[in-house]
Amino acid sequence: MNKTFFIKVATCIFTLVGLVHLYRALNDLPFVVAGWAVPVDLSWAAGVVLLLLAWTGYRHWR
């Protein structure tokens, strides 16, 4: 696997997961992990961080 392919795959994954987190936060969907209700604020933060990582990956991709 070369560097460019890795950056493309990582960028796509970060984008997809970041958008899913923001979708969950916007629609206030419940999410429970091992009996712990994950706060919506955590999805807001994760969505923003993941999309920033995706943006950085896209910059290196070009």
Summarize the structure in words.
The chain is mainly alpha-helical. The chain has one domain (3-61). It is built from two helices and two strands; from the N terminus they run H-E-E-H. It has helices spanning 3-27, 40-61; strands at 32-33, 36-37. The protein has a two-stranded antiparallel sheet with strand order 1-2. Helix 1 runs antiparallel to helix 2. It is elongated, with a radius of gyration of 14 Å.
SSE blueprint and pairings:
Blueprint: H1 3-27, E1 32-33, E2 36-37, H2 40-61
Helix pairs in contact: 1-2
Short description:
The chain is 76% helix and 6% strand. It is mainly α.
- End-to-end gap: 18 Å
Largest sheet entry: 2 strands, antiparallel
Low-pLDDT segments: none
Share in helix:
over 70%
Radius of gyration based on Cα positions: 14 Å
- Which strand order spans the largest sheet, edge to edge or round the barrel? 1-2
Compute the number of helices. 2
Number of domains: 1
The global form is elongated
The H-and-E topology, N to C, reads as HEEH
Report the portion of residues in β strands: 5-15%
Structural class of the helices, strands and pairings?
A: mainly alpha
**Beta-strand segment tally:** 2
Average of the residue pLDDT scores: 94
